[in-house]
């Protein structure tokens, strides 16, 4: 006989862990108890030695699907002589850390009930259980109990209560548990907010979508705008009402078969689409699919996801197979999630609202991924993943990391856990900034974190930096590209020294220049800038980002002494800018790889002006002919890469009539060659054989693949992002890693 006390940490609350333990103990004839405490779950079991062994093994191997055991400690206790096994009341202690589950797609058991006419939740749009349903977006406070969620106002009916209290039931302590008798309801509103009296709002909504109407649909973390993706007049109407010129719209498909009719499914894509997190996956589209051109102009990919709430599944239950499902906002504003606010903001876009009375507490956008070498690569880490933490190796103080300006996330750390926020967005307007501040307060409360230091970017004008400077805490400023490198190192627990190749659009450099293609030697004490892309002026500063032709012109001017400046650049007023550049007026020097991609894109006549960040580079990647061989020469001296020979070569190729697709490919190969040559030099001279690739340019999978392949071919160990995006969405993790470790 033996008695053991277990302390279990991780995601073990609100995921059916206690009933699982209860049933397991019953099965093995063990006695004792289980309870939730502020760290997770505590168990005491007493019984035969062998049964206890079996119990411990099953705890790890048979835990419920959403449970995530991070730590399991066992200690022997004197025999207690328990009469049986029971679930005890939760204990509250001072120092709490209970992890909170992300929102999880409807599980198969719930789906079966949803479409079973004999089930009492037949076609009930809020069906859920301990294995699925809303979590992060409905939690207002911890502990995770119903009264601390937005379900508090719904009183469970006797049937639901019975399930809730029955340890053998799948809905035992499922906090959002509900049914048609006692739970939330959907309703259909006209755009003026008046309610439509219809027998079945969902069937009515489907009929309206089939007619070509645009509907705002309330989801888990906010409103989507939905419409028929096969009718150009409908999709382009949505586009113009949203003031969204070219950014692709995501699609939601009924099932995997529908996805594979539209897109190719590379290895790993199926698993990702079907995963409980249900992200948007960006996939290459099949030739001649009939999706309206306005869905994703200029793209040979489509962003696709599968239904993840019961309401979504019901939308596809009467003939529809595919819908545009884009975030419910105008232009770059944050996604609408409060009912009244959504009505006001989306009134001019949506013809109808399919909404309901379960409030959303936390706004949370869909996550976006691509598949790289069979495994997921984040473009945006949000719904389904947040707020699950990332382990920070060796962290020794609590940090608030404020992140960057665009695609902002923040990060709070406690112990070795880094809690990265959901996607906040571009901190350019008041709305977004407010949700940044509110988000930080919310996370502090949920995880009871009191940061000891605040980490921030060096850019003085980032709103995230200004926020950091207002905090009454010791501050640590971290250079943007150093933070990019650190974010990738944090994922792997690397301490360096490594060679970090960081390529993005812009970041504040320590010499006052705009940095963006940096070769850094990095460890956890700091970085040394070995070199970078040779500086060039950005004519008109920030404006050059929206007008890639300016970069093309300034590169041509320098590389060819003005030979080959196309007439269309002169017509746009190049002569004026040329003078400004010459005299150094409003033309800051930059080493940005993003701007070099812009220049080449414009040179090839793909994009002279862009409507969203990175558009010119994305279209350059899309057009590249993967089969084309060859690359262009470039200069390199002392880790400074000179791209002027590349510009001259491209100019020559275009004059000879070489196709843009071939040039685009050769340009990509050239950039990969630059990385390789820098890496070889750094290995020879500085002994660095581990290479970290970070920065938004590495969302270009063609560039990522070519670089990784070249480097690995020469024996380098290459590290690419897998847990956070390579773009600025990952910056907060890098800041947190450094600030939690560095000596101050
Ligand atoms: Zn379920
Ligand atoms: Zn009920
Ligand atoms: Fe960046």
Describe what this molecule looks like in 3D.
The chain has 744 residues and is an alpha/beta fold. Among the domains are: 2-87, Alpha-Beta Plaits (2-Layer Sandwich); 186-368, DHBP synthase (Alpha-Beta Complex); 531-719, ATPase, nucleotide binding domain (Nucleotidyltransferase, domain 5, 2-Layer Sandwich). The chain is 32% helix and 21% strand. The protein contains 23 helices and 30 strands. The strands form five sheets. A ten-stranded mixed beta sheet has the order 6-13-7-8-12-9-11-10-14-15, with helices on both faces. Strands 27-28-24-23-22-29-30 form a seven-stranded mixed beta sheet, with helices on both faces. Strand 14 (368-372) and strand 15 (375-380) form a beta hairpin. Helix 15 packs across helix 18 and helix 20 (644-655) runs antiparallel to helix 21 (660-686). It is globular, with a radius of gyration of 27 Å. The mean pLDDT is 95. Bound molecules: zinc ion (2 copies) and fe (iii) ion. Fe (iii) ion binds at residues 480, 484, 504, 507, 695-696, 728.
